[in-house]
Amino acid sequence: MATERQKAAARRNIKKARQVQSARARGARIPRRSRGMSTAEENRLEETQFAFPAQRKEPLTDARHVRNAVARFDQVEGVTDAERDRAWKRINSAARKFDVEVSAEDWRELFKGGKAKKKR
Q: Is 25 within the bounds of a domain?
């Protein structure tokens, strides 16, 4: 279940994306930040470009991937709390870089009701 803060952040991110899309439709030359990533491109990424580098899970190469990493954070299985702490720092750093708003201050807020089983 998403919290009200998460929903509000998602609405702001969608509003921002719609503004850019509208400007592009009116002829503005706004470069796309991402065009998607093939499996081969993902395989060529450095380990430092993943939220969970040892498992090569959740790439953080653009705004779309950062939002996806936040949304799926509680679904990553088989990682320790220490690995989650480091991944959360990487995600927040990438969010600042790509101007993505993250409403949760701690990854534990995202974990409520998640599927993943924590490994200690």
A: no
Is the overall model pTM greater than 0.70, yes or no?
no
Q: What share of the chain is helix, strand, coil (3-state, %, to 5)?
A: 55, 5, 40
Tell me how far CA of residue 8 lies from CA of 4, 72, 101, in angstroms: 6, 18, 10
Q: Angle, nearest 10°, between helix axes 81-97 and 63-71?
A: 150
Total domains in the chain come to 1
Cα separation values, 85 from 17, 53, 115, Å: 29, 13, 18
- Residue 18 domain-assigned (yes or no): no
* 67, two tokens: 């939002």
CB of 81 closer than 8 Å to CB of 44: no
**Chain segment 49-64, per-residue pLDDT in tens:** 999 999 988 999 989 8
